[in-house]
Give the backbone structure.
Amino acid sequence: MVFNSYAFFLILFPLFMVGFYMLRGRSVLGAKWWIVLASAVFYAPFGWRNCAVLAVSVAVNALVAWSLAGKRGKSAAVLGCALVANVVALLFFKFSGFFFPIAISFYTFNQISYLVDMYRGEIEDFSLLDYLCYILFFPKILQGPLMGYGDFARELEKAIGTDVRGKSGNYDLSSGPVGDDVSEDRNSGAHAAVDFEIVMRGLLLFSMGLFKKVILADIFGKAVDFGFGNIPGLGSLEAILVAIFYSFQLYFDFSGYCDMAAAICMMMGFELPLNFDSPYKAVNIVDFWKRWHITLTKFFTKYVYIPLGGNRMGQARMYLNFMIVFLLSGLWHGSGWTFIIWGAMHGVLYVLTRALDSQKKTTANISVKTSANTIADSADKAHEDATEENRGGISEKLVHGCKVALTFIYVTLAWVFFRANTAGDAVALILRMFTGGRRRINTHLSSCFQLDEIWYVIKVTPIMKMNFAWDICLWMFLILGAIMIFFAPTAINFSKKCRIGVRSTLLTALLLVWSIISFAGVSTFLYMNF
C-alpha cells in the first residue's frame, strides 16, 4: 500500500488514527499492537513474496537481538554472522535479478543498526513487540527515514505515554512493566486528548506532500520517461529540460513522501528525524549531503565511515573513506555502472571540496598568525569590512546564487547517470544538450503536462491561438517547481509556523481534493525501488 492510494487515505489512515487516539494514554500494550497491526495491513498488499522476505528477515534478526540482549553474553561472532547474513541477503536480492523486495534496504539497515547498538550496550534489553514496532512502523518502512532505536523509543514514549527509561537515555521497552496497561499514568488524560490544531497542521502537511507526489512528481515523471525513451530525437533544449525534469521528479517524489510520513507522525505526537532539507539550495556538494537523505548519510557515517577510521588516520585515508562511502551509496541504490558512476561523481567532488576547504582554513590560520595586530591595522580592517558590507549585499547574493546554480547543475548531470538504463544512454543525453540543435519542443513532451483541469481552461481563452499554447503547461510546471524548490520554505516549516484558519483550511482541502481525484494513475515512490 502507498500513501497516494484510496485504500490508504480513505480506509487505513482514518481507521488507524481513530484507534490510536482511543488507545494512547490508556493502554501502552494496545497502542503498540495497533501500530504493528496497521503496519502489517499497510505492507500486506505488496504480495506474499515481499511479506515472506520481511517476515524471515524480522524473525532471524529478532532472534539474534534476543541472544545479544541483557546479560546473556554478547558474542562478536554472532553479531558478525548476523551482519554478513543481512548484507548478503540485501546484495542477493539487489543483484541476482530474482526479484527486489519492497523496502528491503530500509528495513535491513534499521535491523543492522539495532543489532550493532544492542551489541554496544546502547539498547539495554529486548522486547519482541517493541522490536516489531520499530522495524514495521508504517510511516517509515518504505523510504525511511532511518531512525536509531533510542530515538524511536523516545518518540514512541512521547506518543503513547510510556514512562519506562532504560540505559543512557534509551527506554527499556522489554517485557514486564512496559507490557502492562498504564491507564493510571498521570499523563494519560493529556495523551488521550486530541489536539485539533495539531491534526489540522498534520493534514496541511500531508496535503502538501500528496500534492508534490501526485501532481508534481508524477507529471514530471511522464516527461522524463518520454525523454529517456527518445534520446536520439531530442533537441538541445529538450535534453536540458528532461534532465531538469528528472531532478525535479526526484525532489518532489522524495520530499513528498517525507512530508506525508512526517504529517502522519505529527498527528500521532511522534516526530520523525528530518530527512530532507531543501537540498537544491545547497551551495556545494558537502552542503548537499547535509540536506539530501540526511539519515542515510548519518547511517553511513556511523556504521561505515567511522569504523573505517574516519579522519583519525590522516587526510589521505579520510578521503579514501569518503570515496568508499559514496561508492557504497551508489551500489546501495542499484547495480550497474550507472550507479557506480553516480556515486563516484559525488565522491570525487566531495573529496575535492573538502580538500579545498581544508586548504582555505590552513591559509586563513597562517594569515591570522602573521598579521600585525596594531590599533591602526584593526581600524583599517574595520573600515574595509564596513565598506564591503555596504557594497557587498548584492554581490554576495549573486555569489551565493551562482554557487547554488553550479551545485544544482552538477547534481543534475549526476542524476542523468542515476536514471539512464546504461552509461551510454546517459552520455548520449548529455551530448544532446550540446548537439541537438535548436527546435521547437516536441508536442509529445509538452502534452505530458497538459492536465485536463488546466488544459480545458487554456483552450477557451485567447492563449490557445498563441504559438506557445502547447508549451504553456510545461513552463507553468517548471516555474512552479523552481519556485517551490529554490525560494519557498519547506513544507514542514510552513505547516508548523503558518496560522491555522480559513485560508489554511481551504488550501488543505484544495490540495487534497485535487490530489485525490488524480489517484487513478497511482504510482509507487521512486525510493521504494532502492
User: Anything to note?
Assistant: Confidence is low (pLDDT under 50) at residues 163-190, 370-391. Residues 5 and 520 are 9 Å apart (CA to CA).
